[in-house]
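Record type: ASSEMBLY
Status: queued
Input:
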Amino acid sequence: MAKITASVYTSHVPAIGAALDLGKTQEDYWKPVFAGYDFSKQWMKDNKPDVIFLVYNDHATAFSLDMIPTFAIGTAAEYTPADEGYGARPVPKVKGHPELASHIAQSVIQQDFDLTIVNKMDVDHGLTVPLSLMCGEQDPVKGAWPCPIIPFAVNVVQYPVPSGQRCFNLGQAIRKAIESYDEDIHVHIWGTGGMSHQLQGARAGLINREWDNNWLDLMINDPVACAAVPHIDYVREAGSEGIELVMWLIARGAMSDIQNGKVVGPAPKLAHRFYHVPASNTAVGHAILENA
Amino acid sequence: MALDKPYTDVPGTIIFDAEQSRKGYWLNQFCMSLMKAENRTRFKANERAYLDEWAMTEEQKQAVLARDLNWCMRTGGNIYFLAKIGATDGLSFQQMAGSMTGMTEEEYRNMMLKGGRSVEGNRVIGENGDAQAQNQPQGAAGQQAHAAGKK
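Status: finished
Output:
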């Protein structure tokens, strides 16, 4: 049977991608950001998954105002890195896992979460920056990501976005789906976006180090309480774009200490935790949890 | 019955909800068109003519021509869409976000290096933080405006 062995949480700041692509990782500004992922890159090699289920949000790239799915699962064989206005990032194409993705889609919909199934889309920095951070730089043509990836896009652009509770519950459904897949494979589930940032208006540049770290504590140690944090707290305390953090709760809900909305088992092992301000407009947060 | 909108009392913040999205539909769809290189070239060659191909309001077109992102947002724009205009101009997200505060690029960058904008005084409209309406514009521009007002 397939199983989830670990969850990874990370911000997906576009400027991090640009810093990588333009060879700026050794500059004083960027060094501490990338240093926070040195452990993670080694950890990825030591704990190589067979598939990554990658939760992220599309930033008006594949989904314009033509269509705004709340939860969209990619079931394609391949995804192309998008041109977001600067030209596409020079990173490898993303190979999908259509069999497992379709299996998850069917199971999760039968558990009453109405996913949108996507067979054709480009993927933006929300998906490719976490891959670059965790897997290091890859040649766009000769290189490759370490395994197939299932993109799972959450609407956090147009309100109302799904609640933290909804995301947490969805994570549990995704775990059930993965655990009912017959092949013996190891799956990582990644939650990306955040932490505190606001990209608009007179309040642009808001960072709330204290709130971010309290939220991280809660997400790791008391996820049931974390799931109950209402939208308005994210907006008020962590900035209008800090709301992306609800996506981390999908990954947290999929960990094996959670069942029927409650903590029932031993807490996952915190393998790594990192926090840094700033990366462009944003606080960078990162954690790795391993199932016991 | 009115919809529940608990987010209208956050200073310096417009939440992109269904109402804003409806208002900004064509403005945001115009922005999406700039994800194609040939459209970026056509837009840069004659901005007004390119904008006139879209069913945007005159105010939305003026806001784009002025590159006033706060104005664009008031007319229904969303930052992830508006970012395509900035990308077309070769601007980073930090330059775009900073432009909405009245600060210079350097002032904004320095604020971020010092740990970003504090949430203190900026949670609810009516407090006195640096993002409140009475304290705009920010940075040296704001200090000059303030000094001029006192004369």
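Annotation: Residues 139-150 of chain B form the longest helix (12 residues).
Annotation: Chain B touches chain A through 61 residues (CB under 8 Å).
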